[in-house]
Amino acid sequence: MSAPRADAYAALLGVDVTGHGGGRATARVRVGEDHLNPHGTAHGSFLFSLAGVALAAAANDAEHSGVVSSVHIDYLSPARAGDELVATAEVAERMPKEDLFVVRVCRGEDVVARAGGRANRRLRT
Question: How far is CA 109 from the centre of its chain?
């Protein structure tokens, strides 16, 4: 079995995946000026990407290769430059060939965004 490859897109965004495996992962980032929309808040696509990085890390480990097939996100509160965001993804439902995940993007105790995702699960070769 081969290990999961590093996430080049996460690195480009400055996202650090601090834990993954067993259907759970955490990703952290500090919102920078390059992550802002014209309103001066974190761009929705940046928040979506952060949630997606955590989801992908949770869906992949040394044993399983997970392919994300859908994501739905709700934006709940704005984030601004300097905010540290933590995205936590974990399996909510495990089915025979796929998993359903819940992802929370938080700034401290405040939930900035909440996402649900689905990933196919197959043995890594």
Answer: 17
In the chain, how many domains are there?
1
Query: What's 34's domain CATH number?
Result: 3.10.129.10
In a domain, 3, yes or no: no
What does residue 123 show for φ and ψ, rounded to 5 degrees?
A: -65, 135
The predicted model scores a pTM of 0.92
> In this structure, how many other beta carbons lie within 10 angstroms of the beta carbon of residue 84?
12
What is the phi/psi pair of residue 50, to 5°? Answer: -60, -45
pLDDT tens-digit profile of 24-73? 999 999 999 999 999 999 999 999 999 999 999 999 877 878 889 999 99
CB 115 within 8 A of CB 73: yes
Q: What residues make up the domain containing 12?
A: 8-123
Cβ 25 vs Cβ 58: under 8 Å: yes
Q: Please spell the DSSP secondary structure of 62-124, one letter per residue.
A: SSEEEEEEEEEEEE-S---TT-EEEEEEEEEEE-SSEEEEEEEEEETTEEEEEEEEEEEEEE-
